[in-house]
Specification:
single chain, 3% helix, mainly beta, globular, seven-stranded mixed sheet, four-stranded antiparallel sheet, 122 residues
């Protein structure tokens, strides 16, 4: 299984990014998918998750700014990030688990992808 996140980069505060996560070795419509981030010196935290049935979850810190979506034909998960803030600066990771209850807990994620760096300048 491989989860390949890309599309990170440098963006000004208030800007937007939409990194994709391309999956291989699993079919995303049969998995719960998530996005996490980890800032320097901080723990990895969940920023978005979507169940195989389309139920989504966002923590308050990103709610109304971030949107997770899937493209089953491309076997790809996206994270639309709007109104970005400097505190959103982090490495963003894609995650997959068979169960939604597992993808929303960092210690129970089945598969991790390599991260993509997002830097938001003030």
């Amino acid at each position: 299984v491989q989860l390949q996140a890309s599309g990170g980069g440098l963006v000004q505060a208030g800007g937007s990014l939409r990194p994709p996560c391309a999956a291989s070795g699993l079919t995303i419509r049969s998995y719960a998918m998530g996005w996490y981030r980890q800032a320097p010196g901080k723990e990895r935290e969940l920023v978005a998750a979507i169940s195989s049935g389309g139920i989504t979850y966002y923590p308050n810190s990103v709610k109304a700014r971030f949107t997770i979506s899937t493209d089953n034909a491309r076997n790809t998960v996206y994270l639309q990030m709007n109104s970005l803030k400097p505190e959103d600066t982090a490495v963003y990771y894609c995650a997959a688990s068979k169960a939604f209850r597992d993808v929303i807990r960092v210690g129970d994620v089945n598969y991790w992808g390599k991260g993509t760096l997002v830097t938001v300048s003030s």
